[in-house]
TrEMBL record:
Enzyme class of the recorded protein, top EC level: hydrolase
Signal peptide bounds: none
Record CDD domains: Sortase_D_1
Taxonomic lineage from the root: Bacteria, Bacillati, Bacillota, Bacilli, Bacillales
Protein's name in the database: Sortase A
GO molecular function annotation: hydrolase activity
Domain of life (superkingdom): Bacteria
Enzyme Commission number(s): 3.4.22.70
Keyword terms: Hydrolase, Membrane, Transmembrane, Transmembrane helix
TM regions (residue ranges): 6-27
Organism, as annotated: Thermaerobacillus caldiproteolyticus
Active site (UniProt): H116 (proton donor/acceptor), C173 (acyl-thioester intermediate)
InterPro entries (UniProt xref): Sortase, Sortase_D, Sortase_D_1, Sortase_dom-sf
A Pfam short name: Sortase
């Protein structure tokens, strides 16, 4: 009799934990769907011209943590994602985070963006070498072309090092369908190929 109660109680606890995990994943999935809005067809065009303007002082001021600084457009995925300054959980829950220790989009050096693999970057694995990434901010529209895809350890800091020219580095956890804290990072490294003010 006592054994049956314990087994029954254990079954109820396990079902409650499973239900809570389903709700949490559903919430994260919904936030990712809402953060990504579809693109108009005319935005998903290929850019081939070279950069015309990049300057270190193209922004009127440095953004505050948590501030929306623009949007990341991924034509291959037909997605437009909000970018927030900072990579704390508050920013990453709302969209793509801009690593505050890196330059802003369009500036010379390495601009680093990050996002969760189970929300905004759910399909980032479909983006690879030769694909375009477009960043729109108050300073203009910056089109980058992916030149390299890397998979690195989670603690690898080489992705945030300075670069000699305007570069966009986009990072998310990897593998994409891994359960729990992922051991690797999926990295897109893209060069600036077009600037439009």
């Amino acid at each position: 009799m006592q054994k049956q109660r314990i087994v029954r109680l254990l079954g109820i606890v396990l079902m409650a934990v499973g239900f809570a995990l389903v709700l949490l994943n559903g919430y994260k999935y919904e936030k990712g769907i809402n953060a990504a809005k579809p693109l108009p067809k005319e935005t998903a065009t290929k850019a081939t011209s070279t950069p015309t303007k990049t300057a270190a002082a193209i922004y009127p001021r440095q953004p505050k943590l948590g501030e929306n600084i623009g949007e990341l457009i991924i034509p291959k995925l037909n997605a437009s994602l909000p970018i927030y300054h900072g990579t704390n959980e508050d920013e990453l829950e709302k969209g793509v985070g801009h690593y505050a220790g890196s330059v802003l989009p369009g500036e010379p050096d390495n601009c680093v963006l990050a996002g969760h693999r189970d929300t905004v970057f759910r399909k980032l694995g479909e983006v690879g070498k030769g694909d375009l990434l477009i960043v729109k901010t108050v300073a203009g529209e910056f089109t980058y072309k992916v030149r390299k895809v890397r998979i690195v350890d989670a603690d690898d800091r080489t992705v945030i090092v300075p670069k000699p020219k305007a570069t966009l580095t986009v990072s998310t956890c990897y593998p994409f369908h891994y359960i729990g804290a992922a051991p690797k990072r999926y990295i897109l490294i893209a060069n600036l190929v077009k600037v439009r003010n």
